Task: inverse folding
């Protein structure tokens, strides 16, 4: 989802008490092409959302990333507090963080026995030198010697939960608009706030709904349809209706010497491995087929027992070909998934080649298991869709993440007080 860039300043004690103003969107953005495979997850599970409880947060988040051909430079990190819709908050830093203004990312190791050299960095946090104090949204910032634009490495979102409300949802078989019954999924949400509820819930509460890991169609700032004494209801709301999409396509490159499902060719050159994904084609007019996926996410691992995927997993050039008799007139074609942080940028944009009657793109990916989907992006509306490529089906098993925020008018920030994950089926 597009955000307007905001201007704000950050001061860093350990870097000499300087402050610098720059534009920094509160989004998952990688600023350097040599930074690859950024992962931020909770409790040691790569598939977990980076969300941790306020009353038990220490050491719950794991950050891992690679710098290709890096020298093992010590990097730095900090974080800022954000609003429910991901803008920097106006409150002072001392209100949301304790410890130093920034800390070091100094746990790194060089890759071993890989064709493509890289340095892997690891950070387990929060730790005592830098601790969030309140709940809500946070933006992690990793940088080099200073916070200048050329020294930014990447930013990633994480959340701190102070659970005071119970968020539940169901997916009825038929949405209110029956013309969408076979292609869309509607969520009916209820939030029990307990003693927090008061007459200002319409003004001070905000519900965010995210389908799988997607950011382009995330709904933010949702207000209750009905307010009852015991709960808030979000029903018969058009904004809670999502295209059903399809099960994500998948491939496994944990072993470069075994041609697993959906791999067409594996080649080794002097410099790297190259892999061709089996030819893709539109699934929009095909019957829905169910199978288990990981909802567009990725898991980095190597098949060989005893090898450490953080430093012994190699990279490969992975080629995707989407067969299409003629190019779409008003849409560009993109791959969608966690491998690209759910971003629709040049890295995941496919180019049409009339000689082969299809779209191509090549990505550098680390060994592991990946989900992805082929999508279109309308050049006029910028809407992302699977209608032409992978289709929309009510039967698809999607996961919906629900985040419930309450604006603390006295302290002046959005508290994250409710969170749940709901499967559509």
Result:
């Amino acid at each position: 989802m597009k955000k307007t860039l905001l201007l704000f300043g950050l001061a860093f004690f350990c870097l000499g008490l300087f402050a610098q103003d720059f534009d920094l969107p509160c989004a998952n953005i990688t600023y350097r092409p040599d930074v690859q495979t950024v992962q931020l997850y909770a409790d040691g599970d790569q598939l977990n959302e980076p969300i941790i409880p306020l009353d038990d947060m220490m050491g719950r988040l794991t950050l891992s990333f690679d710098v290709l051909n890096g020298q093992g430079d010590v990097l730095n990190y900090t974080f800022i507090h954000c609003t429910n819709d991901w803008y920097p908050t106006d409150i002072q830093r001392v209100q949301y963080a304790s410890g130093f203004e920034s800390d070091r990312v100094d746990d790194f190791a060089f890759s071993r026995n890989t064709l493509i050299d890289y340095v892997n960095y690891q950070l387990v946090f929060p730790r005592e030198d830098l601790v969030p104090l309140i709940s809500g949204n946070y933006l992690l910032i990793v940088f080099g010697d200073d916070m200048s634009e050329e020294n930014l490495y990447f930013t990633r979102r994480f959340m701190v939960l102070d659970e005071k409300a119970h968020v539940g949802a169901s997916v009825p078989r038929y949405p209110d608009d029956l013309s969408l019954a076979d292609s869309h999924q509607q969520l009916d949400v209820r939030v029990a706030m307990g003693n927090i509820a008061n007459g200002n819930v319409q003004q001070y509460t905000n519900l965010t709904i995210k389908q799988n890991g997607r950011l382009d169609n995330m709904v933010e700032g949702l207000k209750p349809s009905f307010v009852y004494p015991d709960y808030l209801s979000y029903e018969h709301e058009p904004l809670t209706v999502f295209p059903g999409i399809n099960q994500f396509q998948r491939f496994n490159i944990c072993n470069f010497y075994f041609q697993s499902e959906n791999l067409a060719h594996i080649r080794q050159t002097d410099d790297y491995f190259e892999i061709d994904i089996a030819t893709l084609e539109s699934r929009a007019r095909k019957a829905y087929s169910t199978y288990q996926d990981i909802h567009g996410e990725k898991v980095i691992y190597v098949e060989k027992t005893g090898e450490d995927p953080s430093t012994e997993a190699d990279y490969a050039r992975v080629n995707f070909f989407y067969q299409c008799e003629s190019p779409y007139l008003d849409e560009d074609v993109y791959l969608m998934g966690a491998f690209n942080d759910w971003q629709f940028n040049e890295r995941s944009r496919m180019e049409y080649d009339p000689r082969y009657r299809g779209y191509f793109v090549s990505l550098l990916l680390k060994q592991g298991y990946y989900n992805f989907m082929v999508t279109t992006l309308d050049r006029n509306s910028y809407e992302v869709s699977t209608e032409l490529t992978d289709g929309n089906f009510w039967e698809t098993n999607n996961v919906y993440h629900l985040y419930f925020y309450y604006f603390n008018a006295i302290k002046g920030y959005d508290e994250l007080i409710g969170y749940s994950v709901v499967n559509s089926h």
Observations:
- The first strand starts at residue 7 and ends at 12.
